[in-house]
């Protein structure tokens, strides 16, 4: 998270609880499991940044700095561009939208592969700048802008395409949080936006609740039409 180790650990704990509730709420695991697990992944990411904070502020934890930094960036740069479009694709039932989501997933996989190569090939460091953690990456500068565009395409656009009930609320929340982070916290966008996005896990639970309600209503209708 962007403010302190304690807040990172607290948010990680809250996200774990939301993750448990989301998985329980996922009525059809084969279809909704990836989407329901998003709060869990955010929780791990927040816990890892808590250790980044500790390693930068407490010499006793200095040995954890590199591994916790890499764990955070693996989730931020590699996991999300693929996981988010995949999880939304698995929920989609409409053919044309699924085709578009396949393309967005492909873009996400390309971006994740690029970031995986960059993390393995170039040094990355983290430092405290004011009340935020600044991740310094030595990725090729010519591709930084292109990577940012692909990141938005892979992580935000799928929510626009999805026909899932209530997904539009996630669209609005993610877009506003991304814009606010880009404008006010541009140098710390990796840390701050991931924190704001993590808070949106409550909306993910709400979406899953809606899916369960729709599934229950359909089941009730089937029973009433075809009584046993």
Weakly predicted, low-confidence segments = 216-225
Number of helices: 10
The succession of helices and strands, N to C, reads HHHHHEEHHHHH
General form: globular
Description:
The protein is mainly alpha-helical. It has one domain. It has ten helices and two strands, in the order H-H-H-H-H-E-E-H-H-H-H-H. It has a two-stranded antiparallel sheet. Helix 3 crosses helix 9 and helix 8 runs antiparallel to helix 9. The relative contact order is 0.15. About 4% of the residues have low confidence.
Write a short abstract of this structure.
This protein is mainly alpha-helical and 228 residues long.
Task: Itemize the secondary structure elements and their pairings.
Blueprint: H1 5-25, H2 29-36, H3 38-57, H4 65-91, H5 95-121, E1 124-129, E2 132-137, H6 141-155, H7 157-161, H8 167-184, H9 189-199, H10 201-225
Antiparallel strand pairs: 1-2
Helix pairs in contact: 1-2, 1-3, 1-10, 2-4, 3-4, 3-9, 4-5, 4-6, 5-6, 8-9
């Amino acid at each position: 998270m962007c403010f302190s180790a304690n807040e990172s650990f607290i948010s990680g704990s809250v996200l774990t609880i939301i993750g448990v509730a989301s998985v329980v709420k996922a009525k059809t695991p084969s279809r909704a499991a990836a989407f329901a697990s998003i709060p869990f992944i955010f929780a791990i990411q927040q816990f890892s940044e808590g250790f980044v904070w500790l390693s930068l502020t407490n010499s006793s934890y200095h040995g954890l700095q590199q591994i916790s930094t890499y764990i955070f960036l693996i989730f931020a740069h590699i996991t999300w561009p693929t996981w988010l479009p995949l999880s939304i694709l698995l929920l989609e039932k409409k053919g044309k939208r699924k085709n578009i989501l396949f393309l967005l997933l492909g873009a996400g996989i390309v971006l994740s592969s690029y970031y995986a190569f960059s993390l393995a090939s170039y040094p990355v460091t983290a430092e405290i700048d004011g009340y935020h953690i600044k991740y310094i990456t030595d990725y090729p500068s010519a591709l930084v802008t292109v990577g940012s565009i692909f990141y938005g395409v892979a992580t935000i656009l799928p929510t626009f395409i999805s026909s899932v009930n209530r997904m539009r609320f996630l669209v609005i929340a993610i877009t506003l949080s991304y814009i606010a982070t880009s404008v006010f916290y541009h140098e710390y966008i990796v840390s701050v936006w991931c924190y704001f996005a993590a808070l949106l896990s409550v909306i993910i639970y709400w979406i899953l609740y809606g899916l369960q309600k729709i599934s229950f209503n359909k089941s009730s209708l089937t029973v009433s039409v075809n009584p046993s």
